[in-house]
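Researcher: Please translate sequence to structure tokens.
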Amino acid sequence: MVPDKKSIKDFSLAATAGVAAGFINGFLGAGGGIILLWILGRLNPDKGAGAVRDNFASVVAVVLLLSCVSAVTYSHTSNIETASLLTLALPGMAGGVAGAYLTDRLNTKLLKLAFSVLIVIAGINMVF
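Model: Translation complete:
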């Protein structure tokens, strides 16, 4: 089966977004998921609550992989403080479980609002 022009365009757009997300995630340590969430929202024509949750879940799974690659790369080029890593990672994993649980139960408008507010707060903190 020969792919149509839209499929090729969507694949190219997704691949470009993936490269950009990986670069931003590796370079800044954050932000790759924002790119991925934006592109999935554009490529997925279904705007229903289930699709929004699926997009968030897909982005989290991809960001996990991006973060693992970045962590391995950083571990070869700089020192990682084990004490800080454990202090942040263990509570972070508990928060991840709680967040994933809540994502399926929250209204998607509230989920989008919470994500937007978090992005604005993070941006302000990075500027100052």
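Researcher: Any highlights?
Model: The radius of gyration is 17 Å.
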